[in-house]
Amino acid sequence: MATESIEESLRQAVEALDRTGLLYMHDARKPSLTALVAGGPIKGSWWGHPAGRRIFQVASALEDGALVLFVPLLSAKVTLVHRRLWPALLAVGESRAPWQMDPLAPRAVELLAEVDRTGRVRATGPSSKALARALLVHAEQVHTAGGSHATELVAWSAVRDAREIVERLDPDTARRVLEEAAEGIDAVSGLPWVRITR
Fold first, then answer.
1. Which helix (H) or strand (E) segment is 189 a member of?
2. pTM score, whole prediction
């Protein structure tokens, strides 16, 4: 794709995130980065779509530019969370509420303790996914020395330090802030604390 089209797609994505604060990475019915870049909803996987490379480039540019965090926030799908919502996201993640902790298997609790102790743990499997979906950790994709990708679970305290997030919110206020943003894209029912209590 031409550089201009990548830049235009990036500009549109930034404008959408500035407006809403949240955007699905990929969804056929809700506002998503894939639909924005492709010019319309994509059914099935976006990787094989003609706009797939441009979607990846725009997503990478948003992350590299420290504008978004990619988190399984809405409907357990990867969601782009604008930096203005990071204090709310961290407050919810660090709250260790019953909806987060009660469903965890013993192995996930052990893994969470390891992340808390070390700040960052390379992990895969059901326990790491459970921690990320409960917003207890931030799951980051990293490049390994062998040239492949791996998932690292990062403590929110480490994210706070690395991203220089100084504002702190109480968990109730933080949930309301995220609910208001999700309401703007008709996705409140996809928030994990809402899904679990239904």
1. none
2. 0.91
